[in-house]
Amino acid sequence: MSIFSDILPINKNEEKTQAGGNLSPYLNFDPHYIPKMQPEFIYPDDSHMASTARRSNVALPIIGMSFMTGSGLGGMAGLYKGLRATTLAGQTGKVRRTQVVNYIMKQGTTTGCTLGIIASFYSCIALGVTWLRDKEDTANTFIAAATTGVIYKSTAGLRSIGLGAAVGLTLAGVYTLVTDNDNIWSKARYNRL
To answer: Which residues of the chain have pLDDT under 70?
Structure first.
């Protein structure tokens, strides 16, 4: 007796001759009655929305990893500053421990939020550039990184804006060299083998 006997009456002898005996041992019904599902991908082709969807699927992990990395690095810097400051001040015991924890928390959250905001800028700009250009290539990475540097340093003057763009372009170049499979370094490495 099947749990779906009211909906799908199954005659096992008839089903074995039609489906070759492929009855599901777990549900006691023939899986051929279930209609075929649509493809699992929302945008399986290289359409305009496919490249934007790929970028948007990467945006949140980038922001989260940047925040967590910044928090960890800031916490380590805060630990160093806290130990140094409390040693110079001659603090001991509970007062020193509290001061060190305060340094760790303040520096960790400040650095984490800063890197999270920069990653948010980069992700939103990269998504917009990908949508506008209707291409997904390394130029989007360079445009987004340079624009992020410009926006992040926009209140500090023209020299800082140029420096922010240069840092963004440098980081985008390093990222592209490490992750892109069509760059010079990966081709040289595979040609040596």
So the answer is: 1-53, 181-193
Beta strands, E only, 50-129: none
Residue 21 buriedness (CB in 10 A; 0-12 / 13-18 / 19+): exposed
Q: What is the pLDDT of residue 15?
A: 46
| 152 token code pair | 């992040």
Predicted pLDDT at 22: 56
The size of the chain, in residues, is 193
Residue 10, token pair as written in the block: 């199954």
Whole-angstrom distance, CA of residue 113 vs CA of residue 103: 15
169/162 Cα distance (integer angstroms): 11
Specify the pLDDT at position 16: 46
> Is 0.85 topped by the overall pTM?
no
Cα three-residue angle 58-59-60, rounded to 5 degrees: 100
The neighbour count for residue 78, using CB atoms within 10 Å, is: 22
Structure tokens at 133: 């250009």
Q: How many CA atoms lie within 13 A of 28 on its CB side?
A: 9
From CA 160, how far away is CA 151, in angstroms rounded? 10
